[in-house]
Design goal:
By secondary structure, the protein is an all-alpha fold. Helix content is about 75%, strand content about 0%.
């Protein structure tokens, strides 16, 4: 049944992913696209854009959107139930683990094994986030490239507009303006990118 499948799939994602929302993206991609066939790569990219632009943690928003989409075949109630099952699945492992950690924190936190675990996990988290960045970046800039076999790369479909938007947002994110030398607020960057996206891809149809 789709609702149990949603809960169990996202439970495994939440259980075996360390480092927050971005490090979950490779597992969500593998589960939702490759294993279950719930989404296309384009739909996942759209969901990530919406999840990043709306309140709440990225991974939870993604789980909610995917669950709602899959449960929608059973009507409005199914859409809500699908969202709830996927969301509960992705947050349950963290809740259980944090509860256990809180109980035994004082006793085990400073032991060599626990400290070694945290030191070993850090590079893994960096690698997962980097893999997500490269995978999604290539999927946006080279829509015809097969990321599994690195084939079908075509300059004909090179999305130079998206590349320029990425570069522009990167520069704006590091600019320091005014006497106080403050960076632009992330909300403002989201609004700017959304406005440019509507103008370039919605109105102009590039």
């Amino acid at each position: 049944m789709i609702f149990l499948s949603l809960f169990w799939s996202f439970f495994k994602i939440g259980l075996f992913t360390i480092g927050g929302g971005y490090s979950m993206i490779p597992m969500i991609e593998d589960t939702a696209i490759n294993a279950m066939g719930w989404l296309t790569r384009e739909e996942l990219l759209d969901f990530i854009g919406v999840a990043e632009s709306t309140p709440g943690p990225l991974a939870i928003n993604l789980a909610t959107f995917i669950g709602s989409m899959q449960g929608a075949e059973y009507g409005a109630f199914g859409s809500i139930l699908g969202a709830v099952c996927a969301t509960l699945g992705v947050v349950a492992p963290s809740f259980i683990i944090i509860l256990i950690v809180a109980i035994v924190f004082e006793k085990f936190m400073n032991t060599a094994g626990v400290q070694g675990f945290f030191y070993g996990v850090r590079p893994v988290v960096v690698g997962l986030v980097a893999a997500s960045t490269v995978s999604l970046g290539i999927a946006i800039i080279f829509p015809l490239m097969d990321l599994t076999y690195f084939s079908a790369l075509s300059a004909e479909k090179f999305d130079w507009v998206s590349l320029l938007l990425i570069a522009l947002m990167f520069v704006l994110g590091y600019l320091r303006l005014g006497k106080a030398k403050k960076k632009l607020h992330p909300i403002l960057l989201v609004l700017i990118s959304a406005g440019l996206g509507i103008l370039l891809f919605g109105v102009c149809g590039l």
